[in-house]
Automatic annotation (TrEMBL):
It holds the Pfam family PGM_PMM_II. One of its GO terms (molecular function) is metal ion binding. Belongs to the phosphohexose mutase family. The keyword Phosphoprotein applies. GO terms for biological process: carbohydrate metabolic process. It comes from Actinorugispora endophytica. Keywords: Isomerase, Magnesium, Metal-binding, Phosphoprotein. Its cofactor is Mg(2+). The lineage of its organism: Bacteria, Bacillati, Actinomycetota, Actinomycetes, Streptosporangiales. Residues 375-450 form the Alpha-D-phosphohexomutase C-terminal domain. Residues 6-132, 152-256, 263-370 form the Alpha-D-phosphohexomutase alpha/beta/alpha domain. This is Phosphomannomutase. It comes from the Bacteria.
């Protein structure tokens, strides 16, 4: 098959269609996946990208050729695939490139029970086998059967968060022509299950993997402009934006203003801690300091971890954590096989809002305690050299409370401010996140670090 290093990433597979990822590559990966997970059955789902059905079918062909039975779930979000893996107790593969542009596709894979597969937990082995070819198999091929799991997925989420008794809410949802256009009507609408007291105002629900309206990446402020405008125009209570594979959900309040994922993490954590006092909540190291503070205030145990779903899920398994949140709007629930689901996080927010007379901005104000820069990327020739220069400038300085290397470089100030500088795994970039007690202090710290990084 040749070298597949270009498409195998730390947590998943991403490639350009058909230059680096096509049906033959998917077939080889399917055979390797079947060999590595060593189970009698797997489940496969795919998003709405034009290439996804062909790639999913080729993957299934490769896996069934190894004697593995394949359940083809068809169209689905990534969290629907995790649901299927958890509910059926089988490994799974999701064909999606998430928020990447239309020319990309990829594969997210998991073991039975939605357990993550990353470079150090099987992905490297799958790559090696796909490149050299799996050992010859001369037994009978497995079966390939289709199964629609959308209604089961929706019913499971409804069983975790009861929205039936909330006050009526007007909710604008921007699906970005991604899989939210498929899952939102099933979960929040009245098509498959009983209607909820929600008026859904849809934006770009048509499934279209060419993304004709805007990229399905709500983390980019440009891509939520339409959602913000529609919330203001319609007088909606809340706006939700999903990424391409609908595993992440971004929230805007009734003013059309973005609600930070850190505030959503804190809001959901409070709800989970009310359900299970003293529980552990995971947060990655670039979520707001407010998250750990609020978890402690509510009697919970905050645990800080590296950025990335495999680290979050592993730490959840180690600690028995009830919930985990990331700055990137990935939200992980113990009740959802420790997997991430933006839809479930959205339902928690809707329940809180629907049981409170206050507006969303009024509710979330208590969770937004600091000024944050957001992620700032700088292209540099030598990531390690620039990071070392920043550390040299701050280490030992008066007013620096701590320096750690859990994930990149984190410097915490005695005043409560901090910054994290992390190298991209795939590009010559350093990613900077800064937080401080107020906007002026944040800007001062941000500018000082950037001046060194970009010197």
């Amino acid at each position: 098959m040749g070298d597949l290093g270009q498409i195998f990433k730390a947590y998943d597979i991403r490639g350009v269609i058909p230059d680096t990822l096509d049906a033959s590559v998917a077939r080889a990966i399917g055979a390797a996946f079947a060999h590595v997970v060593d189970g009698g059955e797997i489940v496969v789902a795919h998003d709405m990208r034009p290439s996804s059905p062909e790639l999913a079918a080729a993957f299934a062909e490769g896996a069934s050729g190894q004697g593995v039975n394949v359940v083809m779930a068809g169209l689905g979000s990534t969290d629907l695939l995790y649901f299927a893996s958890g509910k059926l107790g089988v490994p799974g593969a999701m064909f999606t490139a998430s928020h990447n542009p239309a020319q990309y596709n990829g594969i997210k894979m998991c073991r039975a029970g939605a357990a993550p597969i990353s470079a150090d937990t099987g992905l490297s082995e799958i790559r090696a086998l796909a490149e050299k070819g799996v050992p010859a198999y001369d037994g009978p091929p497995g079966t390939v059967t289709e199964r629609d799991l959308l209604a089961d997925y929706a019913a499971h989420l409804r069983s975790l968060v009861d929205l039936s008794g909330i006050r009526r809410l007007k909710v604008v949802v921007d699906a970005g022509n991604g899989m939210g256009g498929y899952t939102v009507p099933a979960v929040l609408g009245g098509g498959l299950l009983d209607a909820l007291p929600l008026e859904i105002v849809p934006l770009y629900f048509e499934l279209d993997g060419t993304f004709p309206n805007h990229p399905a990446n709500p983390m980019d402020a440009e891509n939520i402009v339409d959602l913000q405008a529609k919330v203001r125009e319609t007088g909606a209570d809340i706006g939700l934006a999903f990424d391409g594979d609908a595993d992440r959900c971004f929230v805007v309040d009734e003013r059309g203003e973005p609600v930070s994922p850190s505030a959503i993490t804190a809001l959901v954590a409070v709800q989970e801690l009310a359900k299970e006092p003293g529980a552990t909540v995971i947060h990655n190291l670039i979520t707001s300091s407010a998250v750990a503070e609020i978890v402690r205030e509510r009697g919970g145990v905050p645990v800080r971890t590296r950025v990335g779903h495999s680290y979050i899920k592993a730490t959840m398994a180690e600690t028995g954590a009830i919930f985990g949140g990331e700055h990137s709007a990935h939200y992980y629930f113990r009740d959802f096989w420790k997997a991430d689901t933006g839809m479930l996080a959205a339902m928690y927010v809707l329940r809180v809002l629907g049981n409170d007379a206050r507006s969303l901005s009024g509710i979330t104000a208590e969770y937004a305690r600091y000024a944050a820069s957001g992620e700032i990327n700088s292209e540099v020739a030598d990531q390690a050299e620039r990071a070392a220069a920043v550390e040299a400038a701050f280490a030992g300085r008066e007013g620096v409370a701590s320096v750690d290397h859990l994930d990149g470089l984190t410097v915490t100030l005695a005043t409560g401010g901090w910054f994290n500088l992390r190298a991209s795994n795939t590009e010559p970039l350093l990613r900077l996140n800064v937080e401080a007690p107020d906007a002026e202090a944040m800007a001062e710290l941000r500018d000082e670090v950037l001046a060194i990084v970009r010197a």
